[in-house]
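User: I'm preparing a small set of examples for a lab meeting where we compare how different chains pack in three dimensions. I only have the primary sequence for this one, and I'd like the structure in token form so I can line it up with the others. Please keep the answer compact; I'll paste it straight into my notes.
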Amino acid sequence: MYIDTHCHLDAAEFDADRDEVAARARAAGVEIMVIAGVERAGFDALLSVCRRTPGCIPALGIHPMYVDNAKVEDLDVLREMIAQYSPMAIGEIGLDFFVPGYDRERQEFYFVGQLKIAAECGLPVLLHIRRAQDAVLKFLRQAKVKGGIAHAFNGSRQQADEFIRLGFKLGFGGAMTYDRATKLRELAATLPLDSIVLETDAPDMPPAFIGKARNSPENLPRIAAVLAELRGIGVEEVAEITTANARAVLGEMA
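Assistant: Understood. Below is the structure token output for the 254-residue chain.
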């Protein structure tokens, strides 16, 4: 079996065929799909999708690219919804220094606030770290959270080792399937296998074998096959170990 540790099956791109997509994923062996939240306005819909879709489990959080829409009281709402609905993680949270015009101070305010909630609640976090690995690591050293996953990892080996030291697994998905992603593929091939989890980020981050089409959790086994090829091992071993890794960091719900 496989665990897709990061997807957005609640996104509008799946409104027309969400049940069919989830069914195809389960048929392909993806038994668990972690749906990561991005803003307070979408929490109710995300939870609704998880309630009615077998295999889907929720994470709730405010994404750094959505902080312009956030209000300070959203942090209190997040804390209340955690108590009421028991999501398996806080996420997708973090920092994004890639998009022009980003508000670093605002991103850091909501990131730190959510790390505090995660520490209080004893929950792991799903991290967004685009162009911000060192800054995220700085805040993690201060926050003492219960580990989590560095989603779409694309940093250096030194940064990878530091995330691992702090109790995090590293998420690998569609970006790893491109031949030109030489640095990322080297990391996938050489990092300790017990530090790696699989993800799709569906509908985003499409793997090379589907081109620019909508990504889907059903693609995870083929992504796993790429990882197996890079490491020179069987895909069954990749499935077994990455599933165990996901459960180790996300807990019994996974």
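A couple of notes for your slides: The domain at 2-250 is CATH 3.20.20.140 (TIM Barrel). Strands lie at 2-7, 30-36, 56-60, 89-94, 125-128, 148-151, 168-172, 196-198.

User: Perfect, thanks.
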